[in-house]
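Service request form, structural biology core

Requester: graduate student, group of Dr. S.
Request type: structure prediction, single chain
Budget code: on file
Notes: please return the result as structure tokens.

Sequence provided:
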Amino acid sequence: MKRIDTDADILQALEALVAIDARLQAVRDCAGDIPLRRSAPGFASLVSIILSQQVSRASANAIEARLIGLINPLTPDAILAAGEQPLIAAGLSRAKQRTVLALARAIVEDGFNLETLCARDAGEAITSLTAIHGIGPWTAQVYLLVSAGHPDVFPSGDVALQAAVADALGCLSGPMQRASRVWPNHGRRFGPSQHACFGPIIVR
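Core staff response, request fulfilled:
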């Protein structure tokens, strides 16, 4: 399956989405050009995503900056050698401390490889990632999007995206928690182009 590696890949996927569902043209027009957002696969990238769970981007950036100020380079071995104290000092919640440590142990002690994981089928990769304590579907999906350029992944459980999808597609007027039901049906239609909705829908 072709990975999303260039701006041209994004453009091609956006054109495919609009061809499948014309309602997305308004979203695309509103969002404008969607830049390619990629980060190198590996421990530091996944830790960054873990830190961004359920907090604002500004808060996550501040916590990450403090953590890197205490542990640099940010590697699994360095995390395990340092223990909990730098994680506490950086402002990680107890749950995120446990997740980061569990991920570091999986890599160092069990040979878990985040780079080769990116080459696997999305379902298999998500299953492997979510087997690690504290890593849920959203974290796994976002990692595969930004670090692997995986074309067949969309974080449909994201609350902001739920609201944006409901608004963009005009599918729901009820409580927000029902919005998570919208994307599975549309995602199956969009197939390997669904990743391209992540940028324009959230921008809208």
